[in-house]
Automatic annotation (TrEMBL):
GO cellular component: membrane
Keywords, in A-Z order: Cell inner membrane, Cell membrane, Manganese, Membrane, Metal-binding
Protein's UniProt name: Metallo-dependent phosphatase
GO molecular function: metal ion binding; UDP-2,3-diacylglucosamine hydrolase activity
All copies of domain Calcineurin-like phosphoesterase, residue ranges: 31-231
Amino acid sequence: MKPRDQFLTPDFIDAATGNKFDPPRAPVRFRTIWISDVHLGTTGCQAQRLLEFLRKTESETLYLVGDIIDGWQLKRRWYWQQAHNDVVQIVLKKAKKGTEVIFIPGNHDEAIREFIDLDFGGIRVRDELVHTTAQGKRMLVLHGDRFDGVIACAKWLAYVGDNLYSLILKFNQWFNVWRARAGLPYWSLSQYLKLKVKNAVSYISSFENALAAEARQRGLDGVICGHIHKPEIRDIDGILYCNDGDWVESLSALVEEPCGELRLVTWQEIVMSHTSAKHEKVNDLCVSPS
Ligand SMILES: [Mn+2]
């Protein structure tokens, strides 16, 4: 059982049959939802969990902030599951039922960039746009790959967790025992990786700064993007930088509460709040303290 699966029990397991089931409950409502970096068409895509998220949430506007379908991977190897179809279906259904759906293509679904400014089945395809929150904040919405520039490095190293890190250290130990026997000098793999991680960290911060600078230059209050698979919401010198994360690892979305408050939610939170009374807390943010 993966750690995430603990959230599927016990509420989602039928005690008699052991089958998972979906108790019918009202979806959690937001003014706006932003998701990106779903990478449909890859084995890493957590389509099943995204489906669950989309079923349990509702919004006036849904932004698909790029890299929704991974055309690069699909060209290399065809991988398309039923759940990937279901994600497409549920988005189309939402559009049909009145959710305003806006698709901003990313670099992995750049083929769709040919259709910018066109509308399909209620889905508006745009390159970028400005979203105004209920609090009147003007936010630039775009995927973000344009700001990659010359910053290129092994960004996956930024996600190397503690476990993998200690495994690497152990490996390094054995590796150097072998090197010593072979008469070779000590070589620190962890030092090497740390350097790479440091590069990845500086890649992320320069990406974030570049996006914030763009919003500032345009006289906007903030920016909402995806692309680097790192959910974030923070102030960068007076500019609100928001990254909605991804559906490969972080399983996160950016949401706007009815009152205009922006925050990050995870798949776990939506599933948990859906199984308990916890989601009443969600809109507490909108009750201004007297
Ligand atoms: Mn991207």
